[in-house]
Write a structure and sequence with these properties.
Length: about 250
Amino acid sequence: MITPSQPRVALVAITKHGLSQALRLAAQLREACLTVSEKFAAELPAISNPVEVLPGALSANMGRLFTRYDQLVLFISLGAVVRLIAPHLKSKDEDPGVVVVDDAARYVIPVLSGHVGGANAFAEHVAALLGAEPVLTTASDVGKTIPVDILGRELGWQVEAPKLNITRVSAHVVNNEPIAFVQEAGAKNWWTRPTPLPANIHLFERFEAVDLSRFKAVLWVTRRDIAPELWTQLAERLVVYRPPLGQD
């Protein structure tokens, strides 16, 4: 999973054209490790990036790459990548971000861990460096709405809710159902998209001001202790965010 510090990045190429694009990107991501198949090792130019030569087939090395890096950028076809990573998937809380770039570097596609693992944001960064088009498919990004699972992460907010709540509330958000957003603490600059806040998101300064019968879900930024009976009352409709102290 991507960390707040510099992520560990591997640029993986196993074809001639893929290697050409990986070298372009490596020149702009000096911390990234260029990871290549053995047949290209002798032909590599001198570069400042760390280099790793894969012993044998990529499939035999994928498990190790999964545990070693935060972001994997693979210059391989999307279908091949799906088959390569499938045996190693655990959960979105553990899996690294996986990004695919085509051999012509026209498209950059986040495949795995788009939100929690940071692949969406990293794909946009890679696309900007290569002059390519990022292809994001997660509903909150396509719909330009709130990403419930990572909201405020760059501000240090911690999400507090059962995973089922996050799933259910995310569905309500992307389906444009009425959502109460209650902010009692934390920085106000949490909405970072260039587009206006979607019309289905209604802002409140106090939880007591919310008529719960009018809203499908509640996103609540607070430092209050929340009673177990309130979690029960709201069932799968509540997600809470905890901002760091002093961020008001």
